[in-house]
Design goal:
mainly alpha; 4 helices; about 90 residues; single chain
Length: about 90
C-alpha cells in the first residue's frame, strides 16, 4: 500500500489491500484441499500445487497491478517505479 501511495495512487485506486487479503483466502482454500487430499506423496500432488499457485496468481494479480500500469501509461514518461526509482538517478548521470 505504501508503495502505491508513493507512486501517487490513491487508496481507492490501489488494489494492494484487495490483492493481499485475497492471497490469505487462497492459502485457506489450498490448505483445505490438501487436508481433503490427505498426506499423499507423489509427483501429481506437486504438479497440481504448482498449477494452483500460477493460476491463482494469474487471477489475482491484475487487481493490484492494473491501476499502476494505467497511471504510468497515461502520458507520464520516466521509469515505471515512480519517484523512488534508482533508475532516474542513474539515468541523469
Amino acid at each position: 500500500m505504501l508503495g502505491d501511495l508513493a507512486n501517487d495512487l490513491t487508496y481507492a485506486q490501489s488494489g494492494a489491500i484487495r490483492f493481499f487479503t485475497t492471497q490469505a483466502l487462497g492459502i485457506m482454500i489450498e490448505d483445505g484441499v490438501q487436508e481433503m487430499w490427505g498426506r499423499s506423496q507423489g509427483r501429481w500432488k506437486r504438479v497440481v500445487g504448482f498449477l494452483w499457485v500460477w493460476a491463482f496468481l494469474a487471477w489475482t494479480s491484475p487487481c493490484w497491478m492494473f491501476a499502476p500500469i494505467v497511471a504510468r501509461a497515461s502520458g507520464e514518461s520516466g521509469p515505471l517505479m515512480g519517484r523512488l526509482s534508482l533508475a532516474r538517478y542513474y539515468a541523469s548521470r
